[in-house]
Specification:
alpha+beta
Length: about 375
């Protein structure tokens, strides 16, 4: 408690100093946003309007998606309303074999809201890598990341391969504690808010406590390194690459955007903002082997490889592929993209089910919260 009070006092002092300069108005506003982003009274509104709080870059998608195919509405489980309240759910879509079986919105949100994806964004970037490989921009997943991102030479990422980064097995030391003001993830957030460089932040990491490929550990900044590789391999921005290769072929409900740093570089590891229907389309494409409405968008071999457990996770723990999760007891074809505060794109190929969920679940880190979510996702899949 003392540490949190001191951290808040430090941030208040920092804001006060910044406020002395008129030119720091936007930085002060963004610093305040980082302090209040997850407050109970603001979190739902914030998650639908991140462009009011941070710098952004558009993802230039011109193609509008074909409407989701309507189908018979499914009966929801008896505990549905209690679960929605418990997990502070803002929207749910269920597809059964590509047909819309359920769509609902809560807490004042609606189908036009561009909701923050958080780490669901990681799975979008993973999908792009399958195309970059097929196009020959990336020669091999076993290439070192420094081949395409030379700014990482001499950093903790020296010697790590693209595969290591996709599997979050780099050995890079990175504190992911969202409740610790001084953790690496929160330092990174302040870099973003103050208009600093995400590339510079990643290149500045210099500690590794295990060799690349030795073991899995969730390290969000690994995904930013993937974006550095993609940009270095092609000479193009991430929004342009994602638009041309993934989102244009899929089509979207509304033009999406990324949060960005002060240099216009997309916040690849969690800054994607899209509608719930578009998150559901990602799940449907992966359910159907990289196809959407009969059109092959991603290489099927990549879809299967990236959603198969391959990282060296601990026995009995959640499994991990290439920026995709699998439950510890996953049956074949069961996997998900997931983000903090209760964002999910869940796929169960055996039942033909896709479930997309957005939430503002401030209790997402409490014991049993993930199991509670997974249990409901599986019920919606008929498990």
């Amino acid at each position: 408690m003392i540490g949190r009070r001191a951290a808040r006092l430090g941030l208040i002092l920092l804001i006060g100093v910044a406020a002395l300069g008129y030119g720091y108005r936007e930085e002060v506003q963004r610093l305040r946003a980082t302090m209040t982003l997850f407050d109970e009274s603001e979190i739902v509104e914030n998650f639908s309007h991140m462009d009011r709080l941070f710098e952004t870059v558009p993802i230039p998608v011109q193609v509008r998606a074909a409407p989701l195919v309507d189908g018979p509405r499914m009966a929801m489980p008896a505990e549905w309303q209690d679960w929605l309240t418990r997990r502070s759910v803002t929207g749910v879509i269920v597809l059964k074999n590509g047909v819309l079986a359920h769509e609902s919105y809560y807490l004042g949100t609606g189908p036009d809201d561009l909701r923050i994806s958080w780490s669901i964004a990681k799975s979008y970037l993973s999908s792009l890598f399958g195309i970059l490989l097929a196009q020959g921009h990336v020669m091999s997943l076993d290439d070192p990341v420094t081949k395409y991102a030379p700014d990482l030479a001499g950093s903790a990422y020296e010697g790590a391969t693209i595969r290591n980064v996709l599997q979050m097995s780099t050995g890079v030391v990175f504190d992911e504690d969202y409740l610790d003001f001084w953790s690496d993830i929160n330092k990174m957030g302040r870099v973003l808010a103050l208009g600093g460089s995400m590339d510079g932040f990643a290149a500045g990491l210099d500690m590794r406590d295990q060799q690349p490929g030795e073991a899995w550990r969730y390290v969000s900044i690994d995904t930013h390194v993937l974006s550095m590789v993609a940009r270095g391999a092609t000479g193009r921005s991430l929004p342009d690459l994602l638009a041309e290769n993934v989102l244009e072929p899929m089509g979207v409900e509304k033009e999406p955007y990324y949060l960005s740093d002060g240099y216009g570089v997309a916040f690849a590891l969690g800054g994607l903002n899209m509608t719930l229907r578009d998150y559901a389309r990602l799940g449907e494409m992966f359910r159907d082997g990289g196809r959407l409405i009969g059109k092959q968008i991603l290489p099927e071999a990549w879809v299967m490889e990236s959603t198969t457990p391959s990282a060296k996770t601990a026995p009995g723990a959640l499994k991990y592929g290439y920026q995709w999760w699998m439950p510890a007891d996953a049956r074949e074809g069961e996997f998900m993209a997931r983000g903090i505060y209760g964002q999910y794109v869940y796929i169960d190929r055996q039942s033909g089910t896709v479930v997309a969920v957005t939430s503002a679940d401030r209790s997402f880190r409490e014991a049993g919260a993930f199991d509670d979510a997974l249990q409901m996702l599986r019920r919606l899949a008929g498990q």
